[in-house]
Design a protein that fits this description.
Elements lengths: L1 H30 L17 H5 L8 E9 L5 E6 L5 E5 L2 E5 L5 E6 L6 E4 L5 E5 L2 E5 L5 E6 L7 E6 L3 E6 L4 E6 L4 E5 L20 E3 L5 E5 L4 E5 L5 E5 L17 E4 L5 E5 L4 E5 L5 E6 L24 E5 L5 E5 L4 E7 L1
Length: 342
């Protein structure tokens, strides 16, 4: 009898342990994010924010040139620079064109708020207006207009070559490929396991792209902390980047937010949360810092954005010219600062 009771109690103990294990697993599953919307932060995010916010002066390789250009925009969204060094800022319902010393050259009225902007190789501009693409000639006159394929599209970046126009759609997490008549001829970045494409993760509305001279489209995958390279047909060729609060990586749920290419093939990247603009070489190796909070006049509290809600605030956009000068648009203060290498 005693032996049977002992076995019974042992069985009860084992069952109790198994129930606890299953319950813990269910709770862990319920608390986890299986949608890909929130990106889990690992143990490397246990940090002293002050330690990572301070940038070693030896790493800062650039200095500001000229005065800060103060715009009169209430909202700004994008910056671009043309071959003559003119600066284009898109916001409100217009594009303002500035000289390098901050004088307004012209204003182009759009009738709707622009969300992104690219300089066209044909001498004009291509503008994203939320779910619409508008092509303008050099004086700013509309030459073509068409809608994105999805009615809920949010176009956040445009890139182009002589045959194609690419538009990054942050809501549908895909890059639409159009011909120059506005016909959809492909998609880039869409999840495809057979082609080893993991898909774009966009926790906050930042999704930047640009076309490189080698013919590969460079794409920020912010929720994965990567910059990727795709062919125009949508094949992923390579990628680089890592999640880290350290200066060499990208912090928070979703960085970098915007980037530009340098003449030597390197990258300039912008981060929000821990405010910093950095340079990487063409292979993605960290080179140095363009500007940190002090150089950008940032007085707001610094933090690592751990949720999309925290990371929905405004940040920076960036452009570079053929001489390697870097133009930083501060979307909070609506100003532009120009930096050149020391």
């Amino acid at each position: 009898m005693k032996e049977r009771m002992g076995k019974f109690r042992s069985g009860l103990l084992i069952a109790f342990v198994l129930i606890l294990a299953v319950a813990a697993g269910v709770i862990a599953f319920l608390l986890s994010d299986t949608s890909g919307t929130h990106v889990a932060l690992g143990p490397e995010y246990t940090y002293d924010i002050k330690q990572y916010a301070e940038i070693d002066p030896a790493l800062i390789l650039y200095r500001q040139v000229g005065e800060t250009i103060e715009t009169d925009f209430e909202n700004t969204h994008a910056i671009a620079v043309d071959a003559e060094g003119r600066i284009y800022v898109a916001g409100d319902e217009r594009i303002a064109v500035y000289s390098a010393d901050g004088n307004v050259i012209k204003q182009i009225e759009l009738g709707a708020e622009p969300t992104c902007l690219a300089i066209d190789g044909n001498g004009g501009m291509i503008v994203g207006l939320s779910d619409t693409i508008e092509m303008l000639d050099a004086p700013g006159v509309e030459t073509a207009r068409w809608k994105a394929p999805m009615p809920n599209a949010l176009l956040t970046s445009i890139a182009t070559d002589k045959n194609n126009i690419f538009a990054a759609d942050a809501v549908n997490k895909v890059i639409w490929r159009f011909d120059r008549k506005g016909n959809v001829i492909g998609k880039v970045g869409e999840k495809d396991e057979k082609r080893n494409i993991p898909g774009i993760v966009i926790p906050s509305p930042y999704f930047d792209i640009t076309m490189a001279p080698d013919g590969l489209l460079r794409v920020v995958n912010p929720g994965r902390h990567l910059i990727e390279a795709y062919t125009v047909q949508g094949d992923r060729e390579w990628f680089w980047g890592k999640a880290s609060v350290g200066i060499e990586g990208f912090s928070g749920c979703c960085n970098p937010i915007n980037f530009a290419l340098l003449p030597d093939g390197g990258f300039v990247t912008c981060e929000k949360g821990l405010v910093r603009v950095k340079v990487y070489d063409a292979d993605g190796h960290f080179v140095g810092v363009v500007a940190g909070p002090d150089q950008l006049g940032w007085v707001e509290p610094l933090r690592v954005c751990e949720t999309p809600e925290q990371c929905s605030s405004k940040g920076f956009d960036v452009a570079a010219d053929s001489d390697g000068r870097i133009y930083i648009l501060d979307m909070v203060r609506k100003n532009v600062r120009i930096f050149e290498k020391e």
